[in-house]
Amino acid sequence: MDVRAQVSSVFHLDKCIGCHTCSLACNNLWTSREGTEYMWWNNVETKPGTGYPTLWEDQEKYRGGWELKGNSLKPRLGRRLGILTNLFYNPYLPIMDDYYEPWTYQYEHLFNAPPGEAPPTARAISKVTGRHVEIEAGPNWDDDLSGSSIYARNDINLNELTEEERTALFRIEQMVFFYIPRICNHCLNPGCLAVCPSGAIYKRGEDGVVLVSQEKCRGWRFCVSGCPYKKTYYNWATGKAEKCILCYPRIETGQAPACFHSCVGRIRYIGVLLYDADRIEEIASSSPESELVAAQRRIILDPNDPAVVSDARKSGIGDDWIKAAQKSPIYKFVKEWELALPLHAEFRTLPMLFYVPPLLPVIASNREGNYDLASGDFFANIGNSRVPIKYMARLFSAGNEEIIKSALRKLWAVRNYQQAKSVGNIDLKQAEALMSEAGCSAETAEQIARLTALPRFSDRFVLPPYHREESIEQFMQDPLAHRNQVGFGLNIPPRRGP
Ligand code: SF4
Ligand code: SF4
After folding, report:
1. Which atom of ligand 1 is least distant from the CA of 191?
2. Would 119 be classed as within a structural domain?
């Protein structure tokens, strides 16, 4: 067992209000420079919808992530050797139209316009050409399902739905949507890293943050195709690739990343997970696809297990980090409660950002303003939800509908239980019966409710103290021991060393 530490996150989608504050916090800090105009390291999409860049989930188009060929895992874009022999040919890149042409408004015209009959206006001007543009796309073009029959219908996660299910989903009076904020997942098996011909992408030893060395990057842009989440971007001004850095200067000083800190819905959690780096290849190669989520849960180790603690110490993980892993809200959501799930596990990059799926699709019967528990089987409603379970499973459980149902059942049971206790409009005995059917104890329900609805800052953000100076010192003493171990194409971060 080779124990490593990873700073990981959970986004609770039931709480996201789609305000985009997170995107602006990130943009103000990192991407308000020349060459980054179109970049949103953090973006928020409406689902169903095609997202940003448009159709990013379509790996036939972009060839991102990994595929299993027999028992062997290989980047869809091809291995490094093949890429090196074909450096000038990559037809799988998103183009500007897939993102959008960045624009601003001609504000000075409001002040400088000559006197006229009509009040002056601030027309949109392209940030690329400086000319007037007709806005035809944007990073949140699907927002709140605007124009959904045109855009959201192209969402490839709807492919497996029957025509009848699609029609029901888009019937205007039944329209339903939710938001999904996206940043780099700081994957354990990053697709971006595996295809970089310059070896410029690396996973930091101490916390697993995936970064692009601006010195080594030669701007080949294979990482842009290789990331199935389209979370690496090309800066046309510097000629280098860039991506979310998980605000490492902030987390190293104990502050949550800007998008987490500013999140209005308080949907974001950050903390440490311990994992077994020896099993990355085995877990990422799990078959069938529907087993991937369960497999990914297995790679995460129990930080309270004495054997794990002892191996973690041998790997040079300090007691303060182990303690942070034991208090990690991520461990609770992902492993203990099995509520948070990776987005598109079938890309096989082992993403380390997890989502609690939204409960919104569950339709409860309602009588005179109250949930009608008496009419029977509430869990039966999960299958009849407005957003088909098949669709949710495509997003969050590599097609495994049971995993989604189980998470929704638990969320539903906890909600009913809390309502029965605090509002009193639901019979407590019936709520308890739902809980036991969902496999959730009263104690766990209290913990889930507390961390979901009433978390303090210190509950949501459990960041370990960094010892950056030690890592730098070790690197200076022995740079080779800190090289990325890129063998199979996986990037296993170096041990923190004692
Ligand atoms: S999401 Fe994963 S594959 Fe994409 S840039 Fe981040 S680490 Fe790389
Ligand atoms: S700030 Fe929070 S609530 Fe608002 S869109 Fe971003 S993730 Fe959602």
Report:
1. 3
2. yes
